[in-house]
Amino acid sequence: MLDGKTVLVIGVGPGLGKEIARAAHRDGANVFLAARREDNLRSAADEIDPTGEQVGYHATDITDADQLAQLVAAVDARFGALDGLAICASFDAGMGGIEATSDKQWRDTFEVNVFATAATVRAALPLMKRNGGSIVFVGSQQWIYPARDVQQLAYGSSKGAGVSMMYALAPELGAYKIRVNTVVPSWMWGPNVGMYVDWQSGVQGRPKEEIRAELDAKFALGEMATDRDVADAVGFFLSDRARSITGQALLVNAGELAR
Fold first, then answer.
1. CA-CA distance, 58 to 129, in Å (whole number)?
2. Nearby residues of 175 by Cβ (< 8 Å), 6 or more positions away
3. Closest to 133 in 3D by CA, of 166, 173, 170, 177
4. Contact 249, 182 (CB under 8 A)
5. 3-state DSSP call for residue 34?
6. From CA 243, how far away is CA 188, in angstroms rounded?
7. Measured between alpha carbons, how far is residue 231 from residues 4, 23, 43, 154, 225 in Å?
8. Which of 47, 172, 179, 226 is the most buried (most CB within 10 A)?
């Protein structure tokens, strides 16, 4: 459903970003990968498309305007178009509530999740204006339903700001036939949650299967979504099957929260 399109995925690491890139390639797109570490990008590119025919990459720190300009130029040079932009890059290291979150954690979180996200959209616009297309933010359910057991006040607040940005961008960029939507996951089974389960198993002295089962019990479908499930939702928004959908935040949470 992405045949003939070029998709840029920002934030390709071992988890969701790589799954978004993999899904886009599976569905026929040329895929360009971006993240800070070139070795991770090279590994992901080789895994997604060993031929190299439909994949490219460029190491980029999206907090740096010059590097963003170089990234967009690299996409244009390689594929000559940009039809879809998926922004998965995120800073979520700040843990805690209002008393535990430092000023630096607040600033670092908003620097990536809000300011750099806006800068990425701005940098991509000249190329996307040529043909129109789709921009997809990856949000977090922390924005609307903060977890009680894992406090991430700064992260959840920044993701709420991202949704507000999407609401404002949708009518502004609609004039160029560019759609803007947000996929909002909760817990996702993948490398990051896998590490959390391993950690809790060690701390609590219980089997990993028990920890995973307790997490899955929160969801109406009896199990959390996977990174691939969320990536498929992103792919839908990137495709022409969502050509009349913009300014929407879609929960992909296996029924943990209905809204």
1. 22
2. none
3. 177
4. yes
5. strand
6. 27
7. 19, 7, 19, 24, 10
8. 179
Tell the burial category of 207 from Cβ atoms under 10 Å away from its Cβ (0-12, 13-18, 19+): exposed
Place of tokens 């899955």: 216
CA 211 – CA 199 distance, rounded (Å) = 10
**Whether the Cβ atoms of residue 109 and residue 91 lie closer than 8 Å to each other:** yes
For the chain, what is the total number of helices (H) and then of strands (E)? 9, 9
- And the tokens for 106? 């607040």
Burial of 66 (0-12, 13-18, 19+ CB in 10 A): exposed
With b meaning 16 or more CB within 10 Å and e meaning fewer, what string describes 80-111? Answer: ebbbbbbbbbbbbebeeeeeebeeebbebbbe
pTM: 0.93
CB atoms within 10 A of CB 16: 27
In the block, which residue shows the tokens 């960029």? Answer: 173
To 10 degrees, the CA torsion angle through 84, 12, 190, 186? -50
Per-residue pLDDT 10s for the chain (259 aa) are 999 999 999 999 889 999 999 999 999 999 999 999 999 999 999 999 999 999 999 999 999 999 999 999 999 999 999 999 999 998 888 788 999 999 999 999 999 999 999 999 999 999 999 999 999 999 999 888 887 777 889 999 999 999 999 999 999 999 999 999 999 999 889 888 888 888 888 989 999 999 999 899 999 999 999 999 999 999 999 999 999 999 999 999 999 988 7
Six-digit token string for 182: 């947000």
